[in-house]
User: What shape does this take?
Amino acid sequence: MPFTAPWRGGLLHLRNRILSSRRFQRWAAAFPLTRPVARQRSRALFDLVSGFVYSQILYTCVRLDVLGHVHREGPQTPAQLAAWMEMPEENALVLIKAACALGLLEPFGRGRYGLGVHGAAMMAHPGIPAMVAHHAMLYDDLRDPLALFRGEAGETRLGAYWAYAGDRPPAELEGAHVTPYTELMAVSQQLVAEEILDAFTPRGYRRLMDLGGGNATFLTAVGARVPEIRLRLYDLPAVAEQGRRRLASAGLEERAEVCSGDFFRDPLPPGADLISLVRVVHDHDDADILGLLQAARQALEPGGALLLAEPMAGTPGAEPMGDAYFGVYLFAMGRGRPRTPEELEALLRRAGFSRVRLLSTRNPLLTRVMLAEP
Assistant: This one.
């Protein structure tokens, strides 16, 4: 029988009294059965304390393209890396050893350093270095986190970067406003698209309308996998034009159409039996999203479905990603919030969807997928 809230609170209070005891901590670190847990918890706590330093080591390696350099050229000596990074060799060696400690680099023998396990994985996913470089804006917004959380920071760099999060009417945004974030999203969207389509391939549907589809990276991936489906991109005018060019370059112009507008204000075009929202919902607040979901429900053809894909809060094994990372990122951006699958299902049901399924994905940290039917 599950504990009621008062009992659970009492147990948590007791647990914390024990854990906050220095005497207990010393005993747990010495007792053989609890020693591994004590060491693991100590490491996790230290990672919290030193996380900013770790992130800056990663950012420096990305900014200097150290990982890309050793990936292209092979293992390098500290002198070679120092020349590449344009810094004294003794300074470079500090950074190299720090990167090795984080698994970004690794000693290869004979005084050379190559990619570590994390560095090699990053080379397989170009969206990761792009996001790390983009985090310079988040770091700047968090320079005085107290001012940010108290609402005293004023306009943030992230709020200015994601132009649709500001006060300017979305329909008035021009190419210069939307191109930077559209290109950033496109870098990682291919990997996300593959993850989605491995979980759900839209065979049997006649027309897919991708809302907020950016430069059509997801639609292009769908078009390559499902040759019989018709494609429709819907986004702001300046973004939609970039999507039009991408669809044409992929040879999909005969199967695709591009519609432009503001999906929070303008009617959605009818005729699609599958509508997708890929990494859109968490960027906006509940009232706006509920209205968008209701509009999508009304625009769907009979027998149609809504495909919703994005990182979700409460993902088992990746809990910090939700409220700790995306929660703060979106707060600095000025709108939106991460949501659990249960919260998203509640919004979908309020919008008129009666059957909601959470599909299994290979890498839930990257994205999770829900399919909703009226």
About this structure: Confidence is low (pLDDT under 50) at residues 173-177.
